Amino acid sequence: MSCEFLHSSQNDFTNSAIQADPSAVPARLEADVLVVFFESDCVRGPIVEIDEATGGLRQELYKQGEITGKRYECVPLYVPQGLACKQLLVVGIGPRDEVDAGVLYEASGTAARRLSGKPRATVGFLADGNWSNEQLEQAVSGATMGVSGEDLYRSEKHQTPFEKTIWLQAPVEVVQRGHVIGDGVKLARRLVNMPPDDLYPETFAEEAATIAGRVGLEIEIWDQARLERERCGALLAVARGSTRSPRIVLLHYRGPGCNDTDPEVAFVGKGVTFDSGGLSLKTSEGMLAMKCDMAGAAAALGAIASIAALKIPIHVVAAVGLVENMTGGNAYKLGDVVTARSGTTIEIHNTDAEGRVVLADVLDIVADLKPGCIIDAATLTGACMVALGRDIAGVFTNNQSSCDVLKDAARSVGERVWQLPMDKDFDSQISSNVADIKNVGDGRLGGAITAAKLLERFVRDIPWTHVDIAGPAFADKPRPSIAGGGTGSMVRSFIEFAKRIASKK
Q1: Is 424 part of the annotated catalytic residue set?
Q2: Which domains does the chain have, with CATH numbers?
Q3: pLDDT in tens, 136-155
């Protein structure tokens, strides 16, 4: 199983070697640091072995209140007697009955982030035999993700990947899968964190081509000329204000036994590599983080790359629409009527509601492929953040069965989503007197729903779920496992969704 697809042609990270040692004796591990996880209300599993090796050191510190097991608490113990490692890091994961895959992902990521603050040769993570394979996968993916940060262009890095990571008392194949999942998240995070002068439609497409070659994906890149031939008038309208020409990237992964099947899943991503708001210009403060407006495209790419590396037996398509939304003399204007590839006309009432206009054409292209279901991810609306905050993605659907699978997948890996209504009375809010529809609703109320209602017009009768990741895609403040920047939101959920669809075949 290859884990090398993270190596891009630009701004490569140093890839840490990862190993699994199912029979390792923790006390004998010669490492810079050994990470052990501790439940706040229960002493069991590996922590018992560590306690015995150190003559009850953890137990004594617990009595003194120096170690509590509180979720994501990190307590370093230097040169611990009885252990071969130079440092022991005790990471709290909270009460036993609240430990799930999401907690372990964050806890491992928190430990990795803390330890990657300076160079480390070898870091060991001690797995707990009480964890399920799925929980261990997420713990490994968190540790893989947590060694990278947003410091891509700093001369002095805030974070440095470990030369070697060893998971003790863990099955090799589970550790490999977890590392691949974590690599997909790292890929999405890196793309989101790249500045817009380096990552724009053409270079994003180049990144996708590099990754496709490494994991065995089929790829099509539609340039300006192809987009014009395909009559992608909605996407092209958004792109008009920029000197950077747009792209659509289509990726196919055909897993074992899927050569002749229609796609079972299509992942679609909004890829606005920079969003100024167009003529509906954002404020400087509102514009500063708008390099993240391609996080949906990053999630789709990260997910399909991991799915391919995992060799899941499924046929998956990923499609991303890549544009810059700028203010040039040819920029699309309020009052313009643009014609989407489907023939639907869209009256523009706000040029900063551009993502849905871009996705209109991408969704129509994907619908031609007749996938079993479509899942799109987009940093689409501030309204979704008003409703759900920064840490929860909104989901909208025309098919409850498919949506339930996605929600369960997200819940199982610890990503937070909440379904919002799609009642028919919202349709009238995007009606236009001039065109078939307009690109915003009537006023600010229900803005996330009316945006989803526009997307719904372009998926035909295919089961479809829209995920608005405007909140969780970008961390403007530190989180336990991430200092800031791109989070890789929904990559793990999409991988898990693909697994579940494949298992139903």
Answers
A1: no
A2: 17-174 (3.40.220.10), 186-503 (3.40.630.10)
A3: 999 999 999 999 999 999 99
